[in-house]
Amino acid sequence: MTPRLMRALAGLLLTLLLVLPVAAQEPRSALGWGEIVESAETAIAAEDATIEALDALREQLVTWRATFEAEMAKTGPRVAALRAQIDALEPPPAEGESEPQAIADQREALNAQLEELLAPVREAETVFAEANALIAELDERVEAERAARLFSKSVTPLDPRAWPPAVAAFGSWLRDLGMQVAAPFATPEARAVWQARGLELGLLALIAIVLLWRSNVWLGHLRARVARREVENAVARVALLAISLAQMLLPVAGLVAISRAAILIGISGPEATVAIGLLPVLGFTVLVARWLALQALPKREGANAFLPISPARRGRARRLVLLLGGLIALGIAWRGMAETSVAMAETIFVPRFVLLTLAGIVMFQLGRLFLSEGRITIEEAEEVHTFWAQITRLVGRALIVVGVLAPLAAALGYGNLGAALLWPTAVSLALIALIGILQGFVFDFYVAVTRRTDTGHDALVPTLVGFALALASVPLFGLIWGLRPITLLEWWQTFLRGFDLGGTRISPANFLTFAIVFLIGFFFVRLIRGVLRASVLPKTKLDTGGTNAILSGTSYVGITLAALIAITAAGIDLTGLAVVAGALSLGIGFGLQTIVQNFVSGIILLIGRPIKLGDWINVNGTEGFVREISVRSTRVETFDRQDVIVPNADLISGVVTNYTLDNSAGRVLVTVGVAYGTDTRRVETILQEVAEAHPMAILSPPPLVTFDGFGASSLDFTVRVVIRDILFKVIVHSELNHAVAERFAAEGIEIPFAQRDLWLRNPEVLQPRGEGA
Question: Which of 483, 561, 714, 725 is most buried, judging by how many CB atoms fall within 10 Å of its CB?
C-alpha cells in the first residue's frame, strides 16, 4: 500500500469524523461566518497558500455548510403545515371583490407567519450557496497546487554530487536509530524498567515466535491435506482461501507483537517510533504481495489461475510480483524515514530514483510476460478466452510503458511525476488481482452452498455479486490515483442530497424507502394472490377463465396500490411533477398509443371475458387455444404447438371466432359419395343410423343427412352431426368415416372412385414408325 493511499484513507476517515457530527451542532453567529469567508477569500487569492492550509479552511466551510443545510431542513414541516392551512382557506377573492373580514385576517396572519418562518430559510439558502461556491474555489486552488507539485522539477539524481549527501543522511538516520534502540539497555536504571515487565515481554516473544515461524508450518500441513480435493470440491477451494488468509495475517500479528514488545522495552525517539510503526506495515505489504501472487498464479497443478499465464511461467511471474511488493515496502519505509529527518527529506529524490528504476525494470519484465502470454492465449485458446487474453495484452503494454516512463521522468528530475505513475499502477494491478480472487471466491462459495457443481459458475447471483465488487472498487481506484478523500466525500454527499425534478427532490433515501415499501407491498399482493388461488377460488363455481381474471385483477390493483403507498411513504410530492408530466404527455401519448390501446383492450378482455383461457378461437387466420391473457397481448397455441402472440387490440376491434365461448358443443360435417344407381333413400337411412349411433352425437337437435346432388362420379351426401365437445371434432370425424365405410360394405353399397373415358382423335399418330414401313 503506497503512502499516498494510506494518507488518503486516513484523510477520508478524518473527514467523516469531522462532518458526521455537524448536524447536531448549534448554528454559529453571522460574524463567525463572515470571518471564515474573509479567510477563505484571502487564502484563495494568496500565492503562497499551502495545500494543508487550504484543506483546513475547506473543513471549516464544510462544517458551516452542514449547519446551514440543517437550518433549512429544520423548518420544512412547519412551512408545509402553514401552507396547508392557507390552502384550506377559501380561494382569494378576485380583483375588485371582497371576502369576509375574519377569513381575510386569518389569511394575513398565516402569510405573516409564513414570511417570518421563511426569512431565515432564505438567508440560510443564500449562505449555503456561498459556502458551496467557496468550497468549489478552494478545490480548484488545491488541484492547481497539486498539479504544480506533480510537475515540479528537482535536482536530477544522475548528478554524482547528489549521492554523497543522500548516503550520509541515510547513515545518520541509522546511527540515530541504533542509539535509540540501545538506550534501554545502556544503564542499569533503563534495564530495570523493562526487566520489571519480563512476563509480558516473554509472552509477546512467545507469540511472535509461534506466529512468525510455526504458524506457517502448521497451516501448510493443513493446506496440503485440503488441496488434494481442490479441483473437484468447491468447499475445499473456499477452505484453501481461508487458510491462505490465515497464513498471511498471522505473521503480521507476530510483527505487531514485536512492535508492542519494543514499546514495552522503552525504545523511543523519532526514528525508533517510525521504525516500530513501519515494521508491521512493511511486513503486511510484502505478505500481501506474496498472497496475491500465490492466489492469482497458484503453484498447484490443475488449479485455476486468475491471470492467463501458463504453468511453466507462473513461477517467474510470482517472483516478479513479490519483488515489486518488496520495492513498494521500501518506498513506504523511505517516506516514513524522511518524515523524521530534514536531510533525508531534502535528498529523497536519490533513493526514489533508485526504487523507481528497480520497480520500472520489474514492471517492464512483468509487462513483457503478460504480453507474450496474451499472444499465446489468443493463438491457442477458444473464442471465449480471447477477450481476457486481449485484456492481458493491454495490461502488459501499460506495464511496459509505465516501466519505461516512470524511471525516465525521475532521471530528468520529475520524481513526483514518476512516482505518481509507477506506484499507483502497481497498486491498481494488486487491486485488480484482489477483485478477481474475490470473484472466484464468490463463485466457489455459491457452488459450495447450493451444491450446483454443473451450472454454479454460470449462475446469475454470483455474477451480480462479482459485478457489485467491481463497481465498489471504483472509489478505491480513484483514491489510488490521487483522488482526495474529501473530494470523494463531497461527491457522495451531493449524491445523497439528490436532485430536483419538477420541484420535487429525489434522493437515494427516497428511492430506497420507495423500493423497500414497494417490495413489501408486492410480496403482500403475491401472498393474497396465492391465498385466493389455493384456498378461496377453488371453493367457488368460477371456471378457469374467471379465476384467472380475478387473480389478474388482484395483481394489477394490488401493485398499483403498493406503488402509491410507496410513493407516499417516500415523501415524494407528485404535484410538482404535474407540469412536467403534462408537457410530456402529448409526445408520450403518440409514442405509446398502441401500447395504451392494447392495455385497455386487455382490461376489457379480463372484465368482459369474450375469450377465456382454454378457448378455441380463430383470429386473423390464426386458430388454436388461448393459453395466456396479459394486459398487452394474448398468447394462442396453435394445433402445431406454436405460440402466436396476438395484440389485445386485434381481439377487441377485429372479428374473432370462439368455438367454445358459451358451451363446448360443435358441429361435424362428413361428406359421402355412393355409386350411381344406389337407392338414395336407403343411403340416407343408413347414414342417419350411423350418425345417431355415435356416443358423442347430440340427438336434440338430431343429426341431419342431406342429398347434396349429382357429382361427376357419385351421388353426394352430407352428414351434419352436433357433438358434445368440439375439441373431439377430428376424432369424431374419423370415427364416423370408419363407421360409414363398414356399414356400406355390409350393405353392399359401393363407394365409387373417379373414372374417365379417354377418346383419341387421331390414334394413327401413336403407331410405331417401323410398322408403317
Answer: 714
Q: For 653-672, what is each residue's pLDDT tens digit?
A: 888 888 888 788 889 999 99
Query: What are the beta bridge partners of residue 660?
Result: none
Q: What is the pLDDT of residue 599?
A: 72
Produce one character per residue of 407-427: b if its CB has 16 or more CB atoms within 10 Å, e if not: bbbbbebbbbbbbbbbbbbbb
Is residue 549 within 8 A of residue 540, CB to CB? The reply is no
Helices (H), 266-348: 270-296, 311-338, 342-346
Query: Percent of the chain beyond pLDDT 70?
Result: 86
Pairwise CA distance, residues 570 & 567, whole Å: 5
The pLDDT assigned to 305 comes to: 67
Mean pLDDT of all residues in 317-327: 93
CA–CA gap between residue 468 and residue 368 (Å, rounded): 31
Centroid of chain to Cα 107: 52
Q: Which CATH code fits 597-658?
A: 2.30.30.60
* Torsion angle in degrees (nearest 10) through CA of 645, 648, 650, 654: 130
Q: Give the span between the Cα atoms of 369 and 98, in whole angstroms.
A: 89
pLDDT of residue 10: 39
CA distance 32 to 232: 68
Write the CA distances from 704 to 116, 343, 668, 675, 722, integer angstroms.
93, 119, 11, 21, 9
- Helix or strand or coil: residue 613? coil
The contacts found for 390-393 with CB under 8 angstroms, 24 or more apart, are: 392/307, 392/308
> 666-747: which CATH architecture?
2-Layer Sandwich (3.30)
Tell me how far CA of residue 146 lies from CA of 50, 150, 151, 416, in angstroms: 10, 6, 9, 10
Residue 9 burial by Cβ neighbours in a 10 Å radius (0-12, 13-18, 19+): middle
Distance CA 667, CA 723 (A): 6
Q: At what angle do helices 311-338 and 415-450 cross, to 10 degrees?
A: 130
DSSP-assigned letter for residue 184: G
Q: 210 vs 221, 244, 255, CA distance in Å?
A: 15, 17, 11
CB atoms within 10 A of CB 501: 12
Domains of the chain: which residue ranges? 3-150, 160-458, 508-591, 597-658, 666-747
Question: Cα–Cα distance between 475 and 477 in angstroms, integer?
Answer: 5
The predicted structure's pLDDT at residue 466: 87
Q: What is the pLDDT of residues 464-515, one digit of tens each?
A: 888 899 999 999 999 999 888 888 888 887 787 776 665 566 777 788 888 8
Distance between CA atoms of 128 and 124, rounded to whole angstroms?
A: 6
DSSP assignment letter at 230: T
Return the minimum-mean-pLDDT range out of 87-101, 409-423, 642-656, 730-744: 87-101
